[in-house]
Specification:
Number of helices: 14
Shape: globular
Structural class: alpha/beta
Number of domains: 1
Order of helices and strands: HHHEEHEHHEEEHEEEHHHEEHHEHEEH
Distance between the termini: 26 Å
Helix content: 25-40%
Radius of gyration: 19 Å
Oligomer: single chain
Length: 379
Amino acid sequence: MSSQNSDDEENRLTKGAHREESGGDDLCDPGRRKFLQVAAGALISQQLLSACGSDPNNLAGITDAQKAGKRKEQSPVCIIACPSYDELPGKKLHSYTKDLQLPDIKNKRVLLKINMVDYRSTRPLTTDPAAIAAAAALMMDAGAKEIIVGDASALNRDTEFLLDATGIGACCKKLGLPFIDLNIDDIKTVANHMGLTKEKSFAFPRTVVEADLVVSLPKLKTHRWSLVTCSLKNMFGTIPGRAYGWPKNFLHVNGIDESIIDIVSAIKPGFAIVDAIISMEGHGPLDGTAKETGFIVMGPDLTAVDAVCARTMGIDPADVGYLRFAEKILGNTDMRNIKLTGETVESVVKQFKLPTSFKREAGKVVSNINEAAGKSGAT
């Protein structure tokens, strides 16, 4: 990815479930975390609700310059049936990429940007280790010289605890892959050339900036503020805590939808592999419930991948704020512009329960934000 670095700015900015939750950092304590979430919600509620509840159809301000980078060709997406994580190793994801325009990564460095936001012993919050292993095998088969796994947890600061509790650490060790805590990685600044938010530039981890290919490897979930969290929203986890603190609510105050587009435009992730074998419905991304969905989704256009994933959840992409922006600026959401291989949407679709901040009304999903305000913190 290209970047514009500023030493002054860098100096300023630099200043699946296996066991029960245990002690450590006070943010790992459920009572302490709940207190902090409520306190943070009280402090920013008006700004946050305003940002999340703005007119979802107001796209008139998008300029021709912002539209210039939108994908012009059809977007290939593949849905791969996989009923369980035990079956995933036999899927050989490389065999599905013939028509997927996987970028040339021979002898190049690849970052698998997973979702490791926090840990709940009974909830599928994070990318499953089996999905990480399958994605790594795909990149190895494609000739990658170096494969790195990384994330910047938005809530839990104890990365060693997260790696241990989720099984992701053991997975990386078994595969011989380094894990980089993007919250504390060295920083490089990148200009915000898209400019949907007020941020002039972003501090990104050096590992993200210097990767030849960033692969978004999220868990498919509903989200209390953005409705759906998938490969585009997963890029929030490239924002480092050392520069912005926790839980990075400035992204929400700036506007979740606009922040997603600005970050993705700056990073330019080139491929997505979505863990939708066991997903999350309801009050996600932390407090929802597990939903067996049984598939993987892959493709080079993250907008198209997320649009397909939304449809498998029984959600129209037009009801997802950041996908309306992405359709104008980044990629394709219209199925006429998506070349789907593998399974059909109709064969895997399961209507997801929504967060309390959204409701189904007259065939659409609309904001229920005023009724749900203050129920839990933002992530």
